UniProtKB/TrEMBL annotation, chain A:
This is Growth hormone-regulated tbc protein. It holds the Pfam family RabGAP-TBC. Residues 328-458 are annotated as: Disordered. Residues 69-262 form the Rab-GAP TBC domain. It comes from the Eukaryota. SUPFAM superfamilies: Ypt/Rab-GAP domain of gyp1p. Residues 356-372, 395-458 have a biased composition (Basic and acidic residues). Residues 373-388 have a biased composition (Low complexity). It comes from Anaeramoeba flamelloides. InterPro entries: Rab-GAP-TBC_dom (IPR000195), Rab-GAP_TBC_sf (IPR035969), Rab_GAP_TBC_domain (IPR050302).
UniProtKB/TrEMBL annotation, chain B:
It comes from Anaeramoeba flamelloides. Keywords: GTP-binding, Nucleotide-binding. Pfam families: Ras. Coiled coil: none annotated. The lineage of its organism: Eukaryota, Metamonada, Anaeramoebidae, Anaeramoeba. PROSITE patterns: RAB, RAS, RHO. It comes from the Eukaryota. This is Rab gtpase.
Length: 458, 206
């Protein structure tokens, strides 16, 4: 992440500062002013204490107020109520500790990946330099990977969990808020299955952007020519929910609204970012310049009110419209993902065959050098490997026997296409060679004739 | 000035971002933030009296982000596959990365194998010989670096610059029209100047 931090400076919330301290003070003043008016209502809401179980139950006044920003001292209590995580937390008391206890010492690919990333979550902050806090982060991420092994762990989850912990939520609160974000607020496959829903979201956002703002088409086309897709920039926004992409105050404001209204606000804010930066985007001369500007423009947004207001000044942006785009795009994305899965399968087969080759060689060597006992040992390890592989395949087949048929169909098509391409390319190559040969022969003959003429003349 | 795209790939936390940061900012953090999706940085370098602008694509290492990588490989003129010399599995998965590259580009692209973290010599699990074998088997370039100490990082990018320029020149030669090449070859082999031939023909006619 290109978080160009001004060294040693931290904002009000303890996150590394992306702009000057003066600006930070101004922002805090504004935030406090705005909060004074709404404080009474938020106090009332707090006293309701967890009656809200889903986002749809949040009433309209609360929704309106959340757009103006929740006073920070109330966020710790209001966020869990607002998003409904407090409700699920109350209903599942003891679940978090149980799931951690049941899986103590349990190792999986996701736990390994989590270990890789622990020290790389907000590394410049003192908060995660203490073991206690690091353990909290580890526990929450582990617990989620145990709860939902299909999703497991995905890079960018560490930033969301870390963000909540730094703000002062307890481990359990963080866990349940994270659960509601992944399982309720965001689309189902945002973090799993080759990031299917992230890809769909990115592409539908680009579609939306192009249809809303005509001026963006030329710059985006120039990026396309460079071989860069807009998804590179927006992916991080959607996966991290703007954490690390926007200044902290803006991120908090966005979370206020996400918890009250759902994730479509992400589309609004992304659109607003482009709208705010219109003049600067159009100024960029070269596509690399344009790209770096797009990549960094979110960090330059200092005034959170301006961002939120422009986000809501975009008219007639409904979930229906977003869903329409999503439905249009999803078959394409799914197709590509299927193709990739087939490709992965083929790769695994290849690698297995290579390994078998190695093992056979090894076996031959071992029979020459060692006793027959060692040979039988290595064979048994081989067979156990095969068994485990078969087990995996069985699991797969149980899960999606329907999709398997589709996969096979698609794989056949892909193979056919590949063969066609190969044949065509080989034909073209042959034709080229023949042309070259003909040209050469003709030239040779011409020159021979010329030489003979010369000789005659002499 | 010509622009070239370079794609960095490799497993999680092998040091892709660190190598790039060392090259561009000459700076190192023991823990750099994990990359989500793809990052982009660029820098101009001078190689063999030519200035070359390198666009560096830094990709996320986690497996589920790999679905996004092919589109970057498709447009890059050089691919750097990084592994961690203190981590065997990261070396093993080179094979997987190679296949994604070859699947996209065939043998059309230059590949650089880089073993990072030479500063952790005590924990080494992959020897230089193994890297050499793996690279020679496939005709790849290879180097061992340390983003922490800066060892070999400048050299890595100089080599990248040189090999890219070489490839670029080759490409330009290939693009030249075929007939010109043929005639020039013929002239060399027969040692005859076409202009002289014409003059003699004319004189003969007279």
């Amino acid at each position: 992440m290109n978080y160009q931090v001004k060294l040693g400076l931290f904002d009000y919330y303890g996150f590394p500062l992306a702009y000057s301290k003066k600006q930070e003070k101004q922002i805090q003043k504004l935030a406090k002013k705005a909060n004074k008016n709404s404080e009474k209502i938020w106090n009332k809401f707090e006293k309701k204490n967890g009656k809200v179980s889903t986002i749809t139950e949040v009433d309209k006044t609360i929704k309106k107020l959340s757009r103006k920003g929740i006073p920070h001292q109330h966020r710790l209590t209001i966020w869990p109520i607002l998003c409904g995580s407090k409700y699920t937390h109350d209903q599942n008391r003891g679940y978090y500790k149980r799931i951690l206890k049941e899986h103590t010492g349990h190792l999986s690919p996701s736990t390994q990946q989590i270990e890789h990333d622990l020290a790389r979550t907000f590394p410049m902050m003192d908060f995660f330099k203490s073991k206690e806090n690091m353990d909290k982060l580890r526990n929450v991420l582990y617990a989620y990977s145990f709860r939902n092994p299909e999703i497991g762990y995905c890079q960018s989850m560490n930033f969301i969990v870390g963000f909540f912990l730094i703000l002062g939520f307890t481990e359990e609160e963080t866990f349940w808020m994270f659960v509601t974000i992944v399982e309720v607020i965001l689309p189902k496959k945002t973090y799993s299955d080759e990031l299917q829903d992230t890809q769909i979201d990115q592409l539908s956002f680009e579609y939306l952007l192009r249809s809303r703002y005509k001026w963006i088409r030329n710059p985006l086309d120039s990026l396309d020519e460079m071989g860069v897709k807009l998804t590179v920039i927006t992916q991080q926004w959607f996966m991290c929910l703007f954490i690390c992409c926007l200044p902290t105050e803006c991120v908090l404001r966005i979370f206020d609204i996400v918890f009250a209204e759902g994730y479509k606000i992400l589309f609004r804010v992304s659109l607003a970012l482009f709208k705010i930066n219109k003049a600067q985007i159009l100024k960029c001369n070269s596509s690399p310049d344009l790209f770096t500007h797009l990549k960094n423009m979110s960090l330059d947004v200092i005034d959170p009110d301006k961002l939120i207001n422009t986000a809501f000044s975009i008219r007639f942006l409904t979930t229906k419209e977003i869903n329409k785009h999503r439905e249009k795009i999803s078959p394409n994305v799914k197709n590509e993902i299927n193709k990739r899965q087939i490709y992965k399968k083929q790769m695994r087969k290849k690698l297995k065959q290579r390994q078998k080759g190695f093992d056979e060689k090894y076996n031959k060597n071992s029979t020459n050098e060692k006793d027959s006992n060692s040979n039988s040992n290595s064979n048994s390890t081989l067979s156990s490997k095969n068994n485990s592989d078969q087990g995996n395949e069985n699991k797969l087949s149980k899960k999606d026997s329907k999709s398997k048929n589709e996969l096979e169909k698609i794989s056949q098509e892909v193979e056919n296409e590949n063969e066609k391409e190969k044949i065509q390319s080989s034909q073209k190559y042959q034709e080229k060679e023949e042309k070259l040969r003909k040209n050469n022969q003709e030239d040779l003959e011409k020159k021979k004739i010329e030489i003979e003429k010369e000789k005659e003349n002499i | 000035m010509e622009n070239f795209k370079i794609c960095f790939m490799g497993d999680q936390s092998v040091g892709k971002t660190s190598i790039i940061n060392r090259f561009i900012y000459d700076d190192f953090n023991i823990n750099s933030q994990s990359t989500v999706g793809v990052d982009f940085l660029s820098k101009t370098i001078f190689v063999e009296n030519e200035s070359v602008r390198l666009h560096l694509w830094d990709t996320a290492g986690q497996e589920r982000f790999r679905c996004l990588i092919p589109s970057y490989v498709r447009n890059s003129s050089l691919v750097v596959i990084v592994f961690d010399i203190t981590n065997k599995t990261s070396f093993k998965s080179i094979e997987f990365w190679m296949d994604t590259v070859q699947n996209e580009r065939g043998d059309d692209v230059i590949v650089f194998l880089v073993g990072n973290k030479t500063d952790l010599e005590d924990e080494r699990q992959v020897s230089l010989e193994k890297l050499e074998k793996e690279a020679n088997k496939n005709g790849f370039l290879y180097l061992e670096t340390s983003a922490k100490t800066g060892h070999n990082v400048k050299q890595l990018f100089r080599k990248i610059g040189i090999s890219i320029l070489k490839q670029n020149k080759k490409r330009k030669e290939l693009i030249k029209p075929e007939l010109d090449e043929n005639t020039s070859l013929m002239n060399i082999s027969l040692n005859i100047d076409p202009n002289k031939l014409k003059q003699k023909e004319e004189s003969g006619c007279c």
